[in-house]
């Protein structure tokens, strides 16, 4: 995948994060990435708009329209708490006075409801508050349990990550040591090969220096007579054949010497046997 970033950091086994210049280099990398990344205003155009209409109330719709039109927010109306008399031009109208009377009656009813709520609060407010505290305490305990479970899950994830990185670190160290060993062996083998090539080259030069030059009367074997063997192979075969012939001749000489010694032994034993035969005849 193009542009894929592979994170190969192992913070549990890597070292050197507190060294001099590490933080500066990391910040420089972040700045360089920020320079390359050019965010646009419409980077979410490929995503569909959220469907918020099912959750909007008429009050929210009106407020959104006001915000969209950039209109100021209406101030809190205190008109219902006021008891204004009829206007000066309508002092003689009965409807104006009737409206003022209804307004005063609404204000009185509101004040009576407030006093009733205060009396109910004095009678039942303590128990209601205790019930609310019990519910709140239960919610807090439940949230505390969820928080502990989340912390435990985080700790388990961190422990698994540490264990995985530790195992990976041991594996990496083992592979690195094996790689160093192989590289060292390859270097030693290459060094030995170079030395052997030097020895072979020196031996060939020495052999060429002590080998007599061929005369004009000598006929060099043709490739057809050599049967696909080079000069070095032929020389080795000649040396081996000469050594085999010499060993065969030495074996024949040893066999002839053994036969001669046996004949001499038989000749020396023969007079003694004849003397014994004559002595036995005289005794008879």
TrEMBL record:
The keyword RNA-binding does not apply. GO terms for cellular component: catalytic step 2 spliceosome; precatalytic spliceosome; Prp19 complex. It comes from Drosophila suzukii (Spotted-wing drosophila fruit fly). One of its GO terms (biological process) is RNA splicing. Residues 240-250 have a biased composition (Low complexity). Keywords: Coiled coil, mRNA processing, mRNA splicing, Nucleus, Spliceosome. Residues 211-284 are annotated as: Disordered. It comes from the Eukaryota. Residues 251-260 have a biased composition (Acidic residues). This is Pre-mRNA-splicing factor SPF27. It is found in: Nucleus. Belongs to the SPF27 family. Residues 227-239, 261-284 have a biased composition (Basic and acidic residues). Residues 140-167 form a coiled coil. Residues 211-220 have a biased composition (Polar residues).
């Amino acid at each position: 995948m193009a542009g894929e970033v592979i994170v190969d950091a192992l913070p549990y086994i890597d070292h050197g994060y507190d060294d001099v210049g590490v933080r500066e280099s990391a910040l420089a990398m972040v700045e360089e990435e920020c320079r390359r990344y050019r965010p646009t205003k419409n980077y979410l155009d490929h995503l569909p708009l959220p469907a918020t209409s099912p959750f909007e109330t008429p009050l929210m719709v009106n407020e959104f329209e006001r915000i969209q039109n950039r209109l100021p927010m209406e101030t809190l109306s205190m008109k219902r708490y006021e008891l204004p008399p009829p206007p000066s031009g309508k002092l003689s109208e009965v409807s104006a006075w009737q409206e003022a009377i209804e307004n005063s009656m609404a204000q009185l009813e509101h004040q009576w409801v407030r006093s009733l709520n205060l009396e109910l609060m004095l009678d039942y407010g303590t128990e209601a508050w205790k019930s609310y505290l019990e519910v709140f305490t239960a919610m807090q305990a439940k949230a505390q349990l969820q928080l502990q479970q989340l912390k435990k899950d985080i700790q388990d994830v961190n422990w698994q990550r540490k264990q995985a990185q530790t195992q990976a670190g041991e594996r990496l160290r083992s592979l690195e040591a094996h790689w160093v060993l192989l590289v060292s062996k390859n270097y030693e083998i290459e060094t030995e090969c170079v030395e052997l090539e030097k020895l072979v080259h020196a031996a060939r030069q020495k052999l060429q220096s002590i080998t007599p030059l061929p005369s004009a009367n000598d006929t060099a074997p043709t490739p057809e007579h050599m049967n696909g063997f080079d000069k070095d192979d032929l020389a080795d075969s000649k040396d081996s054949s000469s050594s085999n012939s010499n060993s065969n001749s030495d074996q024949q000489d040893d066999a002839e010497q053994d036969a001669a010694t046996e004949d001499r032994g038989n000749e020396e034993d023969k007079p003694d046997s004849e003397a014994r035969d004559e002595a036995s005849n005289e005794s008879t």
